[in-house]
Amino acid sequence: MQDAEDVRRIALSLPDTTEKTAWSMPTFRVAGKMFATLPEDETSIAVRCPKEERAELVMAEPGKFWIAGHEAQFAWVRVRLCALEDEDELRDVLADSWRQAAPARLLDAHPGLGLPAGG
Fold this sequence. Notes:
With 119 residues, the chain is α+β, with helices and mostly antiparallel strands. The chain has four helices and six strands. It has helices at 4-13, 51-60, 87-101, 104-109, and strands at 17-22, 25-30, 33-37, 44-48, 65-66, 76-80. Strands 1-2-3-4-6-5 form a six-stranded antiparallel β-sheet. Helix 1 crosses helix 3 (87-101). The longest helix is centred in the last third of the chain and has 15 residues, at 87-101. The relative contact order is 0.20. The model has no long low-confidence stretch (mean pLDDT 93).
């Protein structure tokens, strides 16, 4: 099962990522823009997710994804760490969120990072 240390290790391995405590929890930022947090008891993560994709994700895998009430108006989704299949899935989730926050210069420098296989 993936845990907070796996999240930290993988997030910090992404280009130009830093960790900063905000709201009494670890947050991960690319070029200063937040792309992941480790809320509450660190059994889940919050990541960026376009609003138009969130409902579909939650409906497809409600045991894995959900929307926290206070984040409903923002483009974020929660992911239960215990529901992830493996470290590769955690890496994919974090890299996808990283792409949504990263500036163009980093996206250009790392064109395949966070894209689906074959995409």
